[in-house]
Specification:
Distance between the termini: 53 Å
Strand order of the largest sheet: 1-2
Structural class: mainly alpha
Length: about 130
């Protein structure tokens, strides 16, 4: 990788072999953030995470619409929260449920959409 210098100095080359489970930064004034992947808090959260990943993969095969883009953003948020905190908060789950309802004609026909809806019902009740 070649790093461009903003001060007009010639570019420097940085070689990085393999990095696993680490965080690093190259250059001056960098901020490094390392995200730890948490284990889902329980089997219900783990099932939701699997269903969310599957639905995202299924949605990628369709032409995006405003509703599916909103749904995808909520799916990403729920997955991120489960992966980092171990569980998605009720408010986030409610927003996902609303986005799923808005795309009901599409997601209701997908097994992955039904699986997400069932996981949400188990977590939120109703």
């Amino acid at each position: 990788m070649t790093v461009q210098n903003p001060d007009g100095q010639p570019p420097r080359t940085v070689h990085i072999g393999s990095v696993t489970g680490s965080a690093f930064a190259v250059g001056d004034h960098n901020t490094v953030t390392q995200h730890q992947n948490a284990v889902p808090a329980d089997e219900t959260q783990a099932e939701l995470l699997r269903a969310v990943r599957k639905l995202r993969a299924d949605l990628a095969r369709f032409t995006p619409s405003d509703a599916t883009e909103i749904l995808d953003a909520e799916l990403v948020s729920v997955a991120d929260e489960i992966e980092t905190a171990g569980a998605a908060a009720p408010g986030r789950l409610t927003r996902l449920q609303q986005a799923l309802t808005a795309t009901g004609s599409l997601t209701g026909a997908l097994a992955s959409g039904v699986a997400v809806a069932e996981s949400l019902t188990a977590l939120l009740g109703g």
